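Exercise 7. Given the components listed, write out the predicted structure of the assembled complex. Treat all entries as one system.
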Amino acid sequence: MSYFLFFLLAVVCVGAVLGMIFSRNQAYNALLLVLAFAALGGIFGLLSAPFIAVVQIIIYAGAIMVLFIFVIMMINLRVGIPAEKKKWTIYLSVILAVFLIVEVIIAAKGSFQALAAPGGEEIASPKALGNLLFTEYLYPFEITSVLIIAALVGAIILVKKKEKG
Amino acid sequence: MTEIFWLIPFIPLFSSFLLAIFGRALPKKYISFQACFAVFVSFIISVISFFGLLQVSQESYPLLKTLFTWIKSGSFSINLSLQLDPLSAVMAMVVSGVSFIIHVYSVGYMTEDKSYSRYFTYLNLFTFAMLLLVMSSNIVLMFVGWEGVGLCSYLLIGFWFERHSAANAGKKAFIVTRIGDLGFLLGIFFIFIHVGSAEFTAINEAISGGVITQSLATLIALLLFMGAVGKSAQIPLYVWLPDAMEGPTPVSALIHAATMVTAGVYMVSRMNLLYTLSGTAALVVGIIGAVTAVYAATMALTQNDIKRVLAYSTISQIGYMFIGCGVGAYAAGMFHLYTHAFFKSLLFLSAGSVMHALSGELDMRKMGGLRKYLPFTYPAFLIGAIAIAGIPFLSGFFSKDAILTQAFAQKQYFIWALGVFGAILTAFYMFRLIFLTFHGNERLEPEAKKHLHESPPVMTIPLGLLAFFSIIAGYIGLPVVFGKRLNLFSQFLEPVIKPVHEPHLSIQTEWLLILISVAVALLGIYIAYIFYIKKPKTPHTLNAKFPFIYRLLYNKYYVDEIYNAVFVNPTIRGSEIIYDHFDLKVIDGALNGSASVTGLSGKILSYIQTGLIKDYALVFLFGVILFLGYLLF
Amino acid sequence: MIPGSYFFILSVILFVLGVIAFFVKRDLLTQFLSIEVMLNAGNLAFLAFARALNSLHGQVIVFFIITVAAAEAAVGLAIILLIFRQKKTIKSEDMNLMKG
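Answer.
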């Protein structure tokens, strides 16, 4: 059962990203990615990480992508931008990407054993996660909150229109 | 008493250093005081060390003092270490003593000069270098002193460097002695390869232990002698010494009479075991010394410049010292070095006094009859001349006679004959100088005559001191006829200078030889008297009859011209050609070329900077892949 | 139980697709989007390993990554807006002020 779910979600995800690659319309790109991230959220759930899955859907698919869509609307480009003119860069990047796949898989070959090991079937409860977050990772947690505020302030200041006079 | 002997070279060095930094701002009186006092202190310490040495037993010779390790590379190490033994003690006293007297003289002589402090800086530095040379315990440090005196000689000869002739003379001195130094260096290398150490004690052990074979000894001895030939102005590297008279007269007295030029003789004496082992090298030394002695004396016969006569005389006298060393009488050679230091510097300083009196005139044709105007200088000069001529009861007689007697005893009759002939010439040209300068008709320039005055006491007192020593210095080395015991000098040096087997001469032969020496000296004086007092026309008639000989002698056998044509000009021309073809084109070309290559490559590489992030990201990706690949494989 | 290697391979594929997307597209915004894809691929890999190693630390890291990605997206989009205001275009070829 879970296999079927996994493959479904995986296909949806990859398909959405491929669609993003081939589509020229930016709005379509963003929406397809929302789909991709949602599927990814499901996959996270399959990985015994329910909390993260929800966070992914709420924040990534929900907030970040919506942010992107807002910006797309503000930029308001009527004309779609055609794909890269210089074809050779595309081919080059594809080739390099293949290389990358190969290399990474080779690199991780050793850990396939470990990956296949029967990991913890216990569902990582938010309680346990929260425990870890507020003890061992307290410092990064607080810093991250500061980071978010900084980003917020930064973004607002950057985009503010200068006042006349 | 002897622990402080290592300070001897360094006090003048310190003084020189201070003068170099602060000299311009210091008052003249202080500079004179400091410079002279520094050398005086060195002299006192050397005397104290000498007495201390006498009290120490001979087994502990030489007394060493190592200051620090200068070079250390694997098994090769050279220390800055000084040694005190009879030879170095004698040399230290002579060098510091004469240097002190000349420093005092210079205070008077150079008083009007605008570079007063620079002069004393160099003079102190020279004293340091020479003391380092004679007191060092290894041959490499001696070479440092060797080069140091060469440098100071260059600086002091070219002291009045605005004069072209002076600057060229300085260059000439340095370059010619450098040629000799090449041989010296090669000698040092060979020594080091075979002995493994540069210390004199180690070298002597190697020689007596048989590590150095006779043929090797010959090679090393000849190479080292090359350096001595350059530094001590023998044939064929003597050409710089007459030109060196461009420097101030006290410099000529100190460097080119008493100390630097005798460094070669000191070196040969220091390495006496080496030269004794190799009979061939000793013979070469003796022959070159003898030939130079006569050759230089012949050139002194015709010179009109008072200092040039003395310069050739120096070359000739050093030849005598090498005769002594060459026949195995190293002590006799050193003895002559010691007496010569006194009377030659006396002669030079007196000549300086004459020049000072005549406002700088040095052409003898414009002098004459100065006897009545210079009541101090004349007797001083006369004493020096008598000493050098070898008249009995003055120092020169004892030392020259010792050398010639030894030469005869070792059956080197050819060398002895040359020495005797040289003695005649010596007496002749010295008294020619005396008669032309102080006797006869006055041929002075009217301007000079107006300002004619005797020198101040600061100059005449040193003259008096030197004259005193020229008379009495010889009595510590009485000839063997008076009993072997009385030759204190060679006895003192025995631990260092192993005496060569002296064949025994009968008493009659010895007295005969002494008589011959005296006779030829008196003969020379008499001939000079005839030529210049009795029948003053004689030189002119002789020159008219034998114009070729006269011109040959007067032009110094055209040796300078030959050297110029054969060595100097081709080298200059060759250098110019190399400059045009190599220096300008290749080296400058390479330099400019590399600059333009850099510029070009910069231009090409700037095409990579397109400013587009995508291109940068591509490169980034590529780099990541490479890196990953490297980590994996 | 799905073996972790499947997730890992998926993560790699997603990452590579993100890379390709970055190079294929010509407008800044979509390139930025592809960066987000890459980030997510990384998240997936982290989670896969976290499950295999039975450690919660991987999940915590993912949590942080998501948060930081959000902040970064905000600022990045602000910058893109500014660029658009200046240049009236978001074609990445036109951003060549650093040329030379």
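Discussion: The mean pLDDT of chain B is 86. Chain B touches chain A at residues 614, 618, 621-622, 624-625, 628-629, 631-632 (CB under 8 Å).
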